[in-house]
């Protein structure tokens, strides 16, 4: 399984970016699949940003809720993260992850990770 992120860049505060994660070898299913974006800033722990279980069930960290949108194009095997109203505190390396739901609940066990793409937001 390979997950390849792209779209990271340096932008000014208030700007927008769209990250993409193209995967191969991973089969997403509506009933059991889940994919997510995580981020890790320098000197900080990795944190979950957004999770997609299906087109109707997504979860967001409080810090990005209302500004970020996670979506996917299953035919293109690509996960997206639309990031608007970016803030300097969004600066981090963003990682894509894929896995399967745990016991049918809205929780995900991540088995596969990408290498990350850097997002830098200047004030």
Structure, explained:
This protein has strands spanning 2-6, 10-12, 17-24, 33-40, 47-54, 57-60, 68-73, 78-83, 92-101, 108-113, 117-122. The protein is mostly beta strands. The termini are far apart. Strand 7 and strand 8 (78-83) form a beta hairpin. The strands form 2 sheets. Strands 2, 4, 5, 6, 9, 10 and 11 form a 7-stranded mixed β-sheet that branches. The protein has a 4-stranded antiparallel β-sheet with strand order 1-3-8-7, with no helix packed on it.
Structural class: mainly beta
Order of helices and strands: EEEEEEEEEEE
Mean pLDDT: 96
Radius of gyration: 14 Å
Biggest sheet character: 7 strands, mixed
Please report the distance between the alpha carbons of the first and last residues. Answer: 37 Å
Annotation field: number of helices: 0
> What sort of overall outline do the alpha carbons produce when their principal axes are compared?
globular
**Helix percent band:** under 10%
| Percent range for β-strand residues | over 45%
Low-confidence stretches: none
Extended strand count: 11
What is the subunit organization of this protein?
single chain
How do the strands and helices of this protein lay out in sequence?
Elements lengths: L1 E5 L3 E3 L4 E8 L8 E8 L6 E8 L2 E4 L7 E6 L4 E6 L8 E10 L6 E6 L3 E6 L1
Parallel strand pairs: 2-11
Antiparallel strand pairs: 1-3, 3-8, 4-5, 4-9, 5-6, 7-8, 9-10, 9-11
């Amino acid at each position: 399984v390979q997950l390849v992120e792209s779209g990271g860049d340096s932008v000014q505060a208030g700007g927008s970016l769209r990250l993409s994660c193209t995967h191969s070898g991973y089969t997403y299913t509506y009933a059991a699949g889940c994919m997510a974006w995580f981020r890790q800033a320098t000197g900080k722990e990795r944190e979950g940003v957004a999770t997609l279980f299906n087109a109707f069930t997504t979860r967001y960290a409080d810090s990005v809720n209302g500004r970020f949108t996670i979506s996917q194009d299953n035919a293109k095997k690509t996960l997206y993260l639309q990031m608007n109203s970016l803030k300097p505190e969004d600066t981090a390396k963003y990682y894509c992850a894929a896995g399967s739901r745990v016991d049918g609940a809205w929780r995900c066990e991540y088995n596969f990770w990408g290498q990350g793409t850097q997002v830098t937001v200047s004030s």
